[in-house]
């Protein structure tokens, strides 16, 4: 296990992207374009916040497409896309999504995937404390009590964020060519068991699965005991990450080269061949 850092991180300046809602393919294209900019040196380390419209079911990079109920998603007006990162299915609806892109050489990402998770989770926890939410990092996956689930929020993994024993923020990480992309979902409100209707759960009772999932997930509204807006949540998480990681966050747009890359990458994330890969 990676030990907590005993000295402050060197001061660093990161770009802050405060985006509105976009469709799933566009959101994933922007995340990858930002990572490419970091890797190739034409974009700065970046913290990005965004939402989703229309709602979208995102599959992990290597998750079988057969685990998504495409007909149910289509009937509900929910897009289906595949993330560049790993993990299981996430329903993105009324949520705040964060994404961090930085170099593997940055001390904030040292220690491999779990080390990076822990460091970024410390910043997320500090942000939640600004909302008077005393959350914790999960340490050790929940013991299995049934067959593997295609739903990301069914079980926390190491250093994901839990409140009162239930998962509040689910994250996934992708490392390539010396860069790190970590993005994660913070549900703001709503019925988090709705995802059960959108995935394939063979030989399991959907009503029972919803009851089980309800005891494992929590929205920000429920944890706070009141409504938290997208902007309020984004400000809190940005402040927590800046404090813990010793950052100056400077708002700024995508570079021209990043915008051009988004157009190309969006075509891939929109393609049925990419969504069907496994």
Class by helix and strand content? alpha/beta
Query: How far apart, in Å, are the first and last alpha carbons?
Result: 30 Å
* Total beta strand runs: 11
Number of domains: 1
Overall residue-averaged pLDDT value: 91
The CATH class is identified as Alpha Beta
Largest sheet: 8 strands, mixed
Shape: globular
Give the helices and strands as they follow along the chain: EHEEHEEEHEEEEHHHEHH
CATH architecture: 2-Layer Sandwich
Let me know the CATH homologous superfamily.
Answer: Bira Bifunctional Protein, Domain 2
Helix content: 25-40%
Count of helical stretches: 8
How do the strands of the widest beta sheet line up side by side?
7-8-9-10-6-2-1-11
The low-confidence parts are none
CATH topology name: BirA Bifunctional Protein, domain 2
Provide the descriptors you would attach to this structure in a database record.
11 strands; 278 residues; 24% strand; 8 helices; alpha/beta; BirA Bifunctional Protein, domain 2
Description:
The two termini are 30 Å apart. The longest helix is centred in the middle third of the chain and has 18 residues, at 112-129. This protein has one domain (12-270): 2-Layer Sandwich (BirA Bifunctional Protein, domain 2). The protein has helices at 24-40, 70-76, 112-129, 206-214, 220-224, 230-245, 256-270, 272-275, and strands at residues 12-22, 46-52, 56-59, 79-82, 90-92, 95-103, 136-137, 161-163, 166-176, 179-187, 247-251. The model has no long low-confidence stretch (mean pLDDT 91). The strands form 2 sheets. Strands 7-8-9-10-6-2-1-11 form an 8-stranded mixed β-sheet, sandwiched between helices. A 3-stranded mixed β-sheet has the order 4-3-5, with helices on both faces. The protein has 8 helices and 11 strands. With 278 residues, the chain is of the alpha/beta class.
